[in-house]
């Protein structure tokens, strides 16, 4: 089966939450495709790996930098976008940083509610805003890709707060795509399913056997676990000229989870 080879040479990509998990793989994939990558995260050290993402990219011959960034603070998000001017300005903004808090509706505290919305929804909104303003200021329309979730459309027990934030990401994506279309800026989102990352405790070790044994509440039709390497190509596709007529889209990368 053939594979797509993307070329982002001479382009600059900002990936929030790029130190670990899906964001790390997305950043590495853009770097492998020739982009200069700015990794924006609250922590430089990756979870489940020894070498920070930007350092690994440099070891591989790429151009990369790390910017400590709390996406719940719009000024910090704006600052990392401004810092990308050193490499020519943001061509692709990947609003990937996210937080998962699982708790019953009856137990979630106001502080937890505010925190998860600040990261998952506020971070995406102001990340989109900062990137769009930078592109407009430079007269260089680019692309924005947000990380949504199957939870953008699917309710799950104990996850009202998380589902609500990812539903917000879906509508931020669609609304932004509508507003920015006339400026030539495309805005899309990927919607990963249950992906084996460092953030799902025990998932990485158990995911494959659970998939093989039908151990999910809702089995994955493709019959295997999902991994960050499954999500990254979808992000690169949406950011590329191959998706030049695609905007406002929510692209599921879930092995068919949402089909039934």
From TrEMBL:
MF GO annotations: oxidoreductase activity, acting on the CH-OH group of donors, NAD or NADP as acceptor
Domain of life where this protein originates: Archaea
One Pfam short name: adh_short_C2
Documented EC number(s): 1.1.1.-
Domain Ketoreductase: 11-206
Family, similarity comment: Belongs to the short-chain dehydrogenases/reductases (SDR) family.
PANTHER family to which the protein is assigned, alphabetical: 3-OXOACYL-[ACYL-CARRIER-PROTEIN] REDUCTASE FABG (PTHR42760:SF115), SHORT-CHAIN DEHYDROGENASES/REDUCTASES FAMILY MEMBER (PTHR42760)
Protein name: SDR family NAD(P)-dependent oxidoreductase
Species of origin: Halomarina ordinaria
């Amino acid at each position: 089966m053939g594979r797509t080879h993307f070329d982002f040479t001479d382009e600059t990509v900002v990936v929030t939450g790029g130190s670990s998990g899906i964001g790390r793989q997305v950043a590495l994939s853009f770097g492998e495709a020739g982009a200069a990558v700015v990794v924006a995260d609250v922590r430089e050290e990756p979870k489940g790996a020894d070498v920070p993402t930007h350092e690994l990219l440099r070891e591989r011959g790429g151009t990369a930098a790390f910017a400590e960034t709390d996406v719940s603070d719009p000024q910090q998000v704006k600052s990392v976008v401004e810092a990308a001017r050193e490499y020519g300005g943001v061509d692709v903004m990947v609003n990937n940083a996210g937080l998962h808090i699982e708790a019953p509706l009856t137990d979630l505290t106001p502080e937890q509610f505010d925190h998860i919305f600040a990261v998952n929804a506020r971070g995406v909104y102001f990340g989109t805003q900062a990137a769009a303003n930078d592109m407009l200021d430079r007269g260089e329309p680019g692309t924005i890709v947000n990380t949504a979730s199957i939870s953008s459309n699917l309710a799950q027990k104990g996850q009202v707060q998380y589902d609500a934030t990812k539903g917000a990401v879906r509508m931020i994506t669609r609304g932004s795509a509508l507003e920015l279309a006339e400026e030539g800026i495309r805005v899309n989102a990927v919607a990963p399913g249950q992906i084996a990352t460092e953030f799902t405790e025990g998932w990485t070790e158990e995911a494959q056997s659970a998939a093989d044994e039908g151990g999910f509440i809702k089995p994955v039709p493709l019959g295997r676990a999902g991994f960050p390497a499954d999500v990254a190509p979808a992000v690169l596709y949406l950011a590329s000229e191959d998706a030049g007529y695609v905007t406002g889209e929510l692209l599921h990368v879930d092995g068919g989870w949402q089909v039934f």
